[in-house]
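S1.2 Input.
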Amino acid sequence: MVKNSALLHVFPTPDATLHALADYFVAQAERAVAARGRFVVALSGGSSPKKLYELLASPACRGRVAWEHTYFFFGDERYVPHDSPESNYLMAKTSLLDPLKIRPNQVFAVDTSLPPAEAAAQYGVAVEEFFGQEPARFDLVLLGLGDNAHTASLFPHTLVLHDKTVGVKEVWLPVEQVFRITFTAPLINQARAVAFLVYGAGKAEAVHQILELPHDVEQYPAQLICLENSKADWFLDKAAAAALANG
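S1.3 Output.
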């Protein structure tokens, strides 16, 4: 049985999944701008979101969002320079931000020239200062899912999984011998909307683990995502949903 913290949207193909999420993105943007005069989104990295960003920047979609009122953060970042091919910021810049001519003051990147703990702390301050006296509630947090059931940079068996603070933390990944910077689960869970983008047969087991197995965040960190006031939306293709009981 799928957990009641998730709302599933399953489509025949990756392309249909991407188009559905693009429509959802547009709707969230419209709702946020109408209600609060701005749309604040936290982007995710990886190959799947890149295709979403390219679609949003395409002639078919670009005119449907009030980009001048949209502000961009990053739910996680690799601890690499901004010009590294591994940088989530660079990927978003080339696929979405530059094609749309987004102004620099609308984009909040992690300063990876700082030591990891300092970079995380400074980014947390940037989030706090942006929202001011209000709680840091993103209008939309975009997430992916790794085949090891991680999301953002909430990886199995890392200390950040038990962090109860609403903020940003550095994460050391011993296997890869690298740092990452990530939103904590409590910060993600304050969002007005969260959308997972997951497609491909290689993700089917992780989708099953997160949505149908007993709660075990050490093994399946994406189980931490449980919004305060709504359900997380999961955009899946049939291959990614195939291991679900009703997949």
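S1.4 Remarks. DSSP finds six helices and nine strands in the chain.
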